[in-house]
Each structure stands twice: as structure tokens, then as C-alpha cells.
């Protein structure tokens, strides 16, 4: 699911429903099923997300480069997010980015 589809699904879960543990669990399940990491605020063993930039080509050898910004636990996680967003594109390079660059 795209982020937009996830937000719409959360809206559907909450629409007219009383806020309860079941509502919270349904939202948490939806988020984790779609690759979001959920944790308690006092969890110290969770890898923090860092900003990454992933460069992609629509076709191998393209000169036009797409830059995908995201927050990820590591390079593999960043690549996974880029491939989810652009499944037919070729991943060219992955680098750590500044937080501002990750939002590009």
C-alpha cells in the first residue's frame, strides 16, 4: 500500500468507531503489515531511522536519475522502500542524507 492508501485505510478503521484497544490494534496491525516500525517510547533496542537518498533509473543505463528520499534503519531498508515505491526502476546508489535531503 502507498502511504496515501494507508491513511485512507486508517480513516476507514476509525470512521464511526469508538476509540478502543481494538481500534488501536487494527491501526498498529495495518502499519506493521506495511513496513512501519512501531515501538514504545522507552524501547532502547530499536534501531533509529536515519535519512537516506536512493538514486534510481527507470531503465538500466538511463541518464535521467530519480532521487528517492526516505527514513530507514539501514541501506537495505532504504532500498526496500525505494523498490516498493518504484518496482520497475533500477537502484543505482544509496547514501546517507541530511534530514532535509530525505524529504526531496
Keywords:
3-stranded antiparallel beta sheet; 2 domains; globular; 104 residues; 4 helices; alpha+beta; 3 strands; 38% helix; Ubiquitin-like (UB roll)
Q: What features would you describe in this structure?
A:
With 104 residues, the chain is α+β, with helices and mostly antiparallel strands. It has two domains: 31 residues, no CATH class; 53 residues, Ubiquitin-like (UB roll) (Roll). The protein is built from four helices and three strands; from the N terminus they run ααββαβα. Strands 2-1-3 form a three-stranded antiparallel sheet. Helix 1 runs antiparallel to helix 2. The model has no long low-confidence stretch (mean pLDDT 86).
Low-confidence stretches: none
CATH architectural grouping of the largest domain: Roll
Dominant shape: globular
What's the total count of β strands? 3
Largest sheet: number of strands, sense, barrel closure: 3 strands, antiparallel
Widest sheet: strand order? Answer: 2-1-3
**Class by SSE composition:** alpha+beta
Measured between the Cα atoms of the first and last residue, the distance is 21 Å
Order of helices and strands: HHEEHEH
| The CATH top-level class label of the largest domain | Alpha Beta
How many helices in DSSP terms? 4
CATH topology of the largest domain, anyone? Ubiquitin-like (UB roll)
Strand content: 15-25%
Domain tally: 2
How large, in whole angstroms, is the Cα Rg?
A: 16 Å
Overall pLDDT = 86
Brief synopsis:
This protein has 104 residues and is α+β, with helices and mostly antiparallel strands. The chain has 4 helices and 3 strands.
Amino acid at each position: 500500500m502507498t502511504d496515501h492508501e494507508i491513511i485512507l485505510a486508517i480513516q476507514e478503521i476509525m470512521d464511526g468507531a469508538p476509540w478502543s484497544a481494538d481500534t488501536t490494534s487494527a491501526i498498529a496491525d495495518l502499519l506493521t503489515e506495511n513496513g512501519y516500525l512501531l515501538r514504545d517510547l522507552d524501547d532502547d533496542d530499536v534501531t533509529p531511522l536515519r535519512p537516506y537518498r536512493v538514486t534510481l533509473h527507470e531503465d538500466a543505463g538511463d541518464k535521467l536519475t530519480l532521487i528517492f528520499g526516505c527514513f530507514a534503519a539501514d541501506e537495505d531498508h532504504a532500498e526496500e522502500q525505494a523498490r516498493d515505491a518504484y518496482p520497475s526502476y533500477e537502484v543505482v546508489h544509496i547514501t546517507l542524507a541530511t534530514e532535509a535531503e530525505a524529504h526531496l
